[in-house]
# Entry
Amino acid sequence: MSDHIIRAITSDGAVMAAAISASGLVEHARQVHQTLPVATAALGRSLMAASMMGNQLKGERDTVSIQFKGGGPLGSIVCVADSGGNVRGYVDNPHISLMEKYPGKLDVGWAVGTDGTLTVIKDLGLKEPYVGSVPLVSGEIAEDVTSYFAISEQFPTACALGVLVERDQHVSNAGGYLIQLLPGADDDTIDKVEAGVKAFGSVTPHLQAGMKPEEMLRTILSAFEVEILDENPVEYRCTCSRERYQRSLLSLGEDDLAELAGNPEGIELKCHFCASTYHFGAGELKSLLAEKRRQMEQLKK
# Structure
């Protein structure tokens, strides 16, 4: 299987875990947004975090959005995932110059910044979405996700994410894990998880060695009996369409839509997530304006 998420639980029910392999997904995002290496790493880590968080959702139409806004040169990073773990995202400034902590290690924390927040929005089909926001810890993405779960959802969590970018800028490997202690986990369980995470170390060398998600989880949780719950394929998937943009135009105020319809050349709208463009000619905009006015008349009756 190519890009996928493995979900697992320990036999004592004390630890829930997920691991992802996503080199194709992250490479697709790089090609869509033409990101340079630092942006590729930052966006790739964010996409994988969102994917694993989305895969935790139960409802078929549930979604999770995460936004990193740290004041760094990358600007904001926004990712949206569905309950299958399929994800899309973008970064405001994909073309910032290469910055390394040391040779071979991209300085994602510098690029994202720490003067800001990680905001998580879960749309679970209720009247209002769940919104949680925490200050950024390091801008390195994984540490900030760990902090979010501990503070906002009160789940002790270990998260590690890695993106390997080659000299020709393509993504050769991307993956990571999310391990969470469930309510009732005792001190012995906590000690074992902490020891496993510490012994495992950075995820990047394991990705370079070709380690798969299941191997990753079984290695970190070697002190436990691990049961694999499921294995799901994931992909970079945008949900934009011409019909969605038509609905967005109809949601504008009548005056705004009339102004757009007055442009003889029409307008072109571009999707942030997949870079698809949709052209609406003057005639089509006038038809949408007429539809808008019919809707307004219906509301008055």
